[in-house]
Design a protein that fits this description.
The chain is an alpha+beta fold. It has one domain: Orthogonal Bundle (Arc Repressor Mutant, subunit A). The chain has three helices and three strands; from the N terminus they run βααββα. The protein has a three-stranded antiparallel sheet with strand order 1-3-2. A hairpin with a 2-residue loop joins strand 2 and strand 3.
Length: about 60
């Protein structure tokens, strides 16, 4: 069994959402895609992304 990571890269999130890399980074910039920064890495918390999708995208998570 493969364990899912708690975080995704922006590219992985884009792939999961079936949007382009550029669209994903634009969503990060506008706050539509939940992210957190650790050092120079920009990561998408899987649980927050899934919660946002389950809510139908109605909630706009802020950067942490």
């Amino acid at each position: 069994m493969v364990e899912e990571s708690a975080v995704l890269t922006v590219d992985e999130a884009a792939s999961l959402l079936r949007i382009s890399r550029g669209s994903a980074y634009e969503a990060v910039k506008t706050g539509e895609l939940p992210t957190l920064r650790i050092g120079r890495r920009l990561l998408v918390p899987r649980a927050r992304l899934m919660a946002m999708l389950e809510a139908g995208g109605e909630e706009r998570p802020r950067d942490v």
